Amino acid sequence: MDHAAALTEQNRLLAELVHDRAPDAAVPTCPGWTLQQLVRHVGRGDRWAATIVRTGEFVDPREVPGGKPGDDVTGWLRESPRTLLDAVAETGPDVPVWTFLGPRPAAWWIRRRLHESTVHRADAALALGEAYAIDAAVAADGVSETLALTAERPPAEAPPLPAGTVLHLHATDDGLGEAGEWMVRGTDDGGVAWEHGHGKGAAAVRGPAADLLLAVHRRIPASAVQVLGDAAVFDTWLARTVF
């Protein structure tokens, strides 16, 4: 997948969605936020990642150059992915830089910012009562990235899945193949491991990739997707994977 192109597209769609909308509109899926705060979070986040890539080190988001929009808010938002893409090109996509998971190649931030944008565009669409559409392959990649981030978190006292318990996620879109199925397993140390594949689990969650993406991020209720088997397994997963 071309994560850079997808990031640019998601940003364009978000900018079109929020253009000329009331900045003080509430965003229910981000309690306490307004649309203005959501837009600032996304645009500043891209610039924050760009600054990290250029310096290789953590920086305070409040000190990011250009981190506040001026009068042209949507124009500022539209420019945000380019700051990151230019930084990665200048630094080198394979050069290790700071991330909250430890050093990763600079290009890691492009995929991270892509899926930050996909979910926050859904937040804006839900807040404004607009339909949310996303390419199935992009949504499926977002599910994979979410599982990868979860698997890299330190083991928890209250793990998302009991050791040996399997949660199967299955996107019903045509053409995704193995990229649209995930087997997630609780590990003995309280963590999780996952892989693409088909198999039986204690619970299976089925739906379009877009709905799976929004469900695992708690943007839509679990009842919006089909849950087979032990529904409590998925409910526990959702309750214990809040970032």
TrEMBL record:
Where the record annotates domain Mycothiol-dependent maleylpyruvate isomerase metal-binding, the positions are 6-125
One Gene Ontology CC term in the entry: plasma membrane
Q: Record's superkingdom?
A: Bacteria
The cross-references to SUPFAM superfamilies, in alphabetical order and at most eight, read: DinB/YfiT-like putative metalloenzymes (SSF109854)
Looking up Pfam families in the UniProt record yields: MDMPI_N
Q: What NCBIfam families has UniProt attached to this entry?
A: maleylpyruvate isomerase family mycothiol-dependent enzyme
Fetch the InterPro entries from UniProt.
Answer: DinB/YfiT-like, Maleyloyr_isom, MDMPI_metal-binding
Tell me which stretches of the chain form a coiled coil: none
Q: Which GO terms label this protein's molecular function in UniProt?
A: metal ion binding
Q: What is this protein called?
A: Mycothiol-dependent maleylpyruvate isomerase metal-binding domain-containing protein
